[in-house]
Amino acid sequence: MEMRTHQSHLIMNTGTMAYRNLLKTMHNPDKVLDVVVQPILFMLMFSFLFGSAIAGNVHAYLPIIVPGILMQSLLSAASGSGSQINEDLHSGIYDRFKSLPIAHIAPLAGQLFADILRLFIAAVASLGTGFLLGWRPAGGFGWVVAVVLLDVFLGWAMSWIFAFYGILAKSATMVESVSLMTMLVLSFLSTAFVPMNQLPQAMQVIVHLNPVTYVIQASRMMLNHGVWTNQAWIVLGAGIVVVFIFAPLTVWAYNRKS
């Protein structure tokens, strides 16, 4: 009975902390920009800049660019976890949390669970913009749901890495800089914007080693052909491994810091 009460207490505390972090996101223009505006802006910009050069026209380019922008947006949204945690640690708010009758792990758990909704918002912004531009998933709506769930899960797994770094870093500015560079390298050195066969041979080797390439390729196959490939299994397995490794590390670092 006592264990059940403790679990319900932890769930309530985590829900409250998650709600707090979502409110902070919605009331912070920088965070809203990352989650909502950036996916829309990148979808419009890259579609009209590169559509004609790569695929002949914007409409033909959308099946290529939509999965790429989706993953880029989720990486950007996931990176916000690290800077938010770092800001809270250095602002002293966690010291205030320790004086409250709440579960010790609730602030961290609340941040990571709030990230799930942030990732879904970024996914809807990306796919919704593509739909308004004329993109239609040939695989059907069911495969859209499958892609969103898979990509959001991987984005949430990446949130643990960014959160771990956010706890260890000395400043939120450093977290944001490293997160931005990581997002740009992973997205631009992948097949997010250009098909593999249009890249130089040396670049293909680098792109092939990039894990984000597997996510985008798997997403394209599901959205455009309605097929669950081996790459999708690799992506799912990689996400599980990342959570298995970084969740305990993040909790350990959090307990030491707070």
TrEMBL record:
Bilayer disposition of the protein: Multi-pass membrane protein
Subcellular location(s) of the protein: Cell membrane; Membrane
GO MF terms held by the record: ABC-type transporter activity
Pfam families: ABC2_membrane (PF01061)
Keyword terms, alphabetized: Cell membrane, Membrane, Transmembrane, Transmembrane helix, Transport
Domain ABC transmembrane type-2: from-to ranges: 30-257
InterPro entries cross-referenced by the UniProt entry: ABC2_TM, ABC2_TM_bact-type, ABC_2_transport, Nod_factor_ABC_transporter
Membrane spanning stretches: 32-54, 116-135, 141-165, 177-196, 232-254
One cellular component term from this protein's GO annotations in UniProt: ATP-binding cassette (ABC) transporter complex
Entry similarity comment: Belongs to the ABC-2 integral membrane protein family.
Protein known as: Transport permease protein
Organism: Weissella viridescens
